[in-house]
Amino acid sequence: MNTFTIFLILIILVSFLLVVVVMVQNPKGGGLSSSFGGGGTQQLGGVKKTTDFLDKSTWALATLLLALILASNFAIPGAGGSQESKVINGSETTTTVPVNTPTDNAADNIVNPGDSL
Is 115 exposed, middle or buried (0-12, 13-18, 19+ CB in 10 A)? Predict the structure, then answer.
């Protein structure tokens, strides 16, 4: 298992967690905290702090995802920059490939609606 595969697995895992955390939130402030009755007062289990936890989790996961994506760029196979261009080295050979062009008789091959086949 190479480094890029590890980064890819981590990126998928963090993306999934980020989707879950965002889906749990309610944009109007209700979210998970309102379903436990945490309207305006501190509850027994500290549910009022759930919104703060979800906000901080969202920012932390988004930052981690961005860092993993940027770090995975250095682990992409073949992107090390050690490959040099063949054109710069002068070893590039040019080959000419003939292109088939339509002939002048192409108009003869058109079938008109009145013609019999």
Answer: exposed
| Helix 3-24, helix 50-72: angle, nearest 10 | 160
Place of tokens 């930052």: 63
Per-residue pLDDT of 65-88, as tens digits, reads 999 999 999 888 775 555 555 666
Hey, what long-range contacts does 13-16 have (CB within 8 A, 24 or more apart)? Answer: 14/61, 14/64, 14/65, 14/68, 15/65
Of the listed ranges 8-12, 16-20, 79-83, the least confidently predicted one is 79-83
Tokens of 87: 């054109």
50 exposure class (CB count in 10 Å sphere: 0-12, 13-18, 19+): buried
Phi and psi for 94 in degrees, rounded to 5?
Answer: -100, 135
* Angle at 46 (CA atoms; ends 44, 19), nearest 5 degrees: 135
pTM beyond 0.70: the answer is no
